Amino acid sequence: MHRRRTALVVSAAVLLLSAPLLTACGSAAHPGAAAVVGDDRITVSQLQHEVNDVRDAQQSSPQGRQLQANSARLNQDTLIRLVQYRIVARAAEDNGVEVTRREAQRRRADVERSNGGAEAVRSRFLALGIAPDRIDEALTMDLTRAKLDGKLGTARTNDVLRRTSDALHVDVNPRYGTWDPKRGIAQPTQEPWLRAAAPAPGEPQRPA
């Protein structure tokens, strides 16, 4: 049971970092900001600090060269994650979903127990471009999404996250691209917070 749930956590992080949600076109720039999500500014310095934390941890790893070679998109991937965390957090707040500190600690313990210990977990998340001191945040967001699914159902959660993204008017510095909130509608498997919902009883499945 623990091993299966943990695998889903890591898979969610992989999707989060691999989905190309920032397109090549730019939007109106905000001086000093990498992105603006509602009233929240993600500054360029904040983004660079996050990226530097990952690079420092990669350099200290025995697999440092390989990790750095596999993370050429680290700036953009990190910004995607920071934007999405804010969207998930707002959706959770609007829908009465909360992850307690105890729940987050229990999830971390489960993940470490099912994946060979704390060091193995740090290595796996570092390969995803997530610094050791950000693992709890990543697991908390994954648990938040899981609780949204549990309360609303996957299909409704997808819709809530799309509408939340629209309502927050996400704007990204052209240096990193532009946010595409509608991409998940056309290609839901490419949207890391959108998950395939099971068809309703009697509803035929769509061909792949």
Automatic annotation (TrEMBL):
<dbReference type="InterPro" id="IPR027304">
    <property type="entry name" value="Trigger_fact/SurA_dom_sf"/>
</dbReference>
<dbReference type="Pfam" id="PF13624">
    <property type="entry name" value="SurA_N_3"/>
</dbReference>
<keyword id="KW-0732">Signal</keyword>
<feature type="region of interest" description="Disordered">
    <location>
        <begin position="181"/>
        <end position="208"/>
    </location>
</feature>
<feature type="signal peptide">
    <location>
        <begin position="1"/>
        <end position="23"/>
    </location>
</feature>
<protein>
    <recommendedName>
        <fullName>Lipoprotein</fullName>
    </recommendedName>
</protein>
